[in-house]
Write a structure and sequence with these properties.
This protein is mostly helical. About 75% of the residues lie in helices and about 0% in strands.
């Protein structure tokens, strides 16, 4: 990863470079395990420069959350608009894999278990998580409705199963970084076909 503190770089570009470095740092170590000094070292810049852009570690983390949250929400929303009434599960997973392949720490930043339980950072994380959950719930409802099932508890249960399944898949992928987005899509297509839900 390139250094963020080179002269002649616009503020917007440098800010983006710092966020890229910080996403990797937070993704590797979690919110609790990261200091501004560590991000500055990794970026090859001074701590005061980070403070001048983001005010604090929390401000930097918020910028990272907005980067990765927007990336994941946009990817899933685009997949939903493309998939129509068939293939929603695989289209959604493929979109997530493609988004995360370009930003390998996106999922771990948005689903960081070390994040404080309340406050502005938690609110920001919850905003994106809730949007992802709502899209998943809409997909589950659509699947069951097309199958003629209207029991709201069925809808609730399938949504819960889907949320846990996606989390498990993303964690498995994190443990197998040699797998590409295409590999993961192919693997999940086989599993979904075997389960009869592809």
């Amino acid at each position: 990863m390139g250094k963020a503190g080179t002269k002649g770089v616009s503020r917007a570009d440098r800010e983006g470079q710092i966020i890229d470095v910080a996403v990797a740092e937070f993704g590797d170590h979690g919110y609790a395990g990261v200091s501004v000094a560590a991000v500055a070292r990794r970026a090859g810049i001074s701590k005061p420069l980070i403070y001048s852009y983001f005010d604090s570690k929390d401000g930097l983390y918020l910028a990272c959350v907005h980067r990765v949250g927007g990336l994941l929400v946009d990817a899933v929303a685009a997949a939903r608009s493309r998939s129509g009434t068939t293939g929603h599960a695989l289209d959604t997973l493929s979109a997530l894999f493609t988004a995360v392949e370009g930003c390998r720490h996106a999922w771990s930043v948005l689903y960081d278990p070390a994040l404080p339980p309340d406050g502005e950072m938690r609110d920001a994380v919850n905003h994106y998580r809730e949007r992802l959950t709502a899209m998943g719930a809409a997909g589950a409802t659509g699947l069951l409705t097309r199958a003629g099932h209207d029991d709201p508890l069925d809808h609730q249960l399938l949504n819960r199963v889907w949320q846990y399944a996606v989390t498990a898949v993303m964690r498995w992928w994190s443990d197998h970084p040699d797998q590409s987005a295409a590999d993961m899509t192919t693997r999940c297509a086989r599993l979904l076909a075997a389960l009869g839900t592809g």
